[in-house]
Amino acid sequence: MSAKISLFDRKKIIYGIIIAVVSIYIFKLFEMQILAHAQFDAKASDNSIKAIEQIALRGVFYDRNMKLLVENTPAYTVRITPAEYDTSLNSKLETILDLENGFIKNMLFKNRTYSKFIPLRVKRGADFSAIAWIEENREHLFGVDYVIEMQRGYPNGAMGSHVFGYSKEISPQQLKKEEQYYQPGDLIGSIGLEKKYEKDLRGEKGYNYILVDSRRREVGKYKNGVNDLPSQKGKDLVLSIDGELQKIAEQELNGRAGAVAAIEPSTGEVMVLASSPQFDLNQFSYFTPKDYLRQLLNDPLKPQFNRASMAAHPPGSTFKLLCAIAALDLGVITPSTTLYCGGSFTYGRSFKCHGSHGSLNVIQAIEKSCNVFFYQLIFKIGLDRLKDYATRFGFGKKLGIDINEEVRGLIPNSAYYEKIYGKNWPHGILPSLGIGQGEVNVTPLQLANYCALIANNGKSFVPHLVRGYLDENKKFHSYKYKEVNVGINQSVFDIVKEGMYRVVNGAGTATNIRINDIHIAGKTGTAQNPQGKDHALFVAFAPYENPTIAVAVLIENAGFGATWAAPIAKKIIETYVRRSMPKTAATSDKNKIEVKQGAEPFAD
């Protein structure tokens, strides 16, 4: 029998192969069009539908009186979509948008790992002339478009650069952590409240779905916009800041290096937090010029440094109030205890006073800011016990204010000096600590918090800048903050506050800011500065009878606290208190203390 395959058998094999191939194609067509219709229909839709991201309006800031502090203003943003963009347009587009040569090429390279269908923002805050040019040449500018986005504006006149902060484009490092929400080119809070409350402020993105042709050109809305998702505006924050007082503080600090902090004693609400020099937030609304950034970085006064919560300096004589509180609460002195001041105190070496005050009780020592009284007092208290009281009042630790820029400062104890000098550390260090010099370092915010606690008899709340937020129906929702109680008897505060009253209204060191119908209680401070002129400090609260505001002022390298810091506190206090006084209000009586009119302030 022949092994060769007959012609008939060959035909059968060929027909069988053809039938098998055709059967496979028929099955695949059946599967695609019938069994997996929904899946492939979705893929086809993906190829013909373009999702256009709608950035949510960012929440705005109101002050405590519901005056707008930070708003949204419309601005043009030019974008390119890499998948559709012709790189031969780089040079022309850079010229029109006033960008540096090679900017677009570098931007495309940096974002090469992301989807080419994600639009990249080339220029925020573009001029209208550039937008008009894009409109006129739209048919030649594949992959180039523009959208109207919002940038920040500051209608109140209070800049609050260190409080409000600003947003900037998200970095690649941040994108890795926040990929679920953000896309390249999105803005994210960078410092201040913009950063701390980013998730509240940013809102929820929306999407508009557009039909496109094979060349990705838009031809209309997908399903007439039925599937579009509207964006949701971020929460509007109601701040504790008083816009008018903030503006006054910024004006008074202009041209000086320093800070002002003011707190409502009963609530812990921060009404003023000003640092000088500051920077122009308008320059950070969209594209920040390199020249401006270079100017900020090269400024020796460091405008981006928040002196209100980060500048730690010796508190000077303002610290004497804490020593008095600790001594009275511990029982090492009573209100009638007197200590003698002969003009100096000797412990290893001589420590001077600014006068020879004779025998003084604690109220008189506060009034006249007697150094010798407090040189002696710290030995009665003890360093470690003083640190305990300082910690209760918020020194030597972060207060927890709702911005991220805050430092602890320093309150030394015996363990601190043992690390430096050993167990037999020199106790000749103590007298300076008793008057707020040496290694003691505090911030203006801590001083304001300390003064607020004194004003409210040791009770308040953690200092905070945001009272709450408004929902979509403009209903206010308050945030909750931790209560603070230093655990000291009110009688102790009564004694110390009486001394503070005399500082301004008696024969004390700040009689230059006395107001007849508003009783201010305060304490001056002049902190020694080895690098230059002394720092001027002042803490105060008012009205004495029912405190509603506590203020701390720091002016660096200025001189006496009474001369440079106290008048600023006076202006802020007077503005705030007078607003709430009836126009016909008569001067209130204060018979508890005899006021010596015309007394000259002492140096402190």
Strand and helix layout:
Layout (H helix, E strand, L loop, with lengths): L6 H29 L1 H12 E6 L6 E2 L5 E13 L9 H7 L6 H8 L9 E7 L1 H9 L7 E10 L7 H4 L2 E3 L2 H6 L9 E3 L2 H5 L1 H4 L4 E7 L5 E4 L14 E4 L3 H11 L4 E7 L4 E8 L13 H9 L8 H4 L9 H11 L8 E3 L2 E4 L1 E4 L5 E3 L1 H7 L2 H11 L1 H10 L21 H8 L8 H5 L9 H12 L3 E3 L4 E5 L5 E3 L4 E3 L4 H16 L15 E7 L7 E8 L6 E7 L5 H4 L1 H14 L25
Parallel strand pairs: 2-10
Antiparallel strand pairs: 1-8, 2-3, 3-4, 3-5, 6-7, 8-9, 10-18, 11-12, 11-23, 13-16, 14-15, 17-20, 18-19, 21-22, 22-23
Would you kindly provide a written description of the structure presented here, covering whatever features stand out?
- With 604 residues, the chain is of the alpha+beta class.
- It has 2 domains: 55-234, Penicillin-binding protein 2a (Domain 2); 243-280 and 309-579, Beta-lactamase (3-Layer(aba) Sandwich).
- It contains 22 helices and 23 strands.
- Strands 2, 3, 4, 5, 10, 18 and 19 form a 7-stranded mixed sheet that branches.
- Helix 10 (243-253) runs antiparallel to helix 22 (566-579), helix 13 crosses helix 15 (371-381) and helix 13 (320-330) crosses helix 16.
- The radius of gyration is 34 Å and the shape is elongated.
- The protein starts with 6 loop residues before the first helix and ends in a 25-residue tail after the last helix.
- 40% of the residues are buried.
- The model is unreliable at 585-602 (pLDDT under 50).
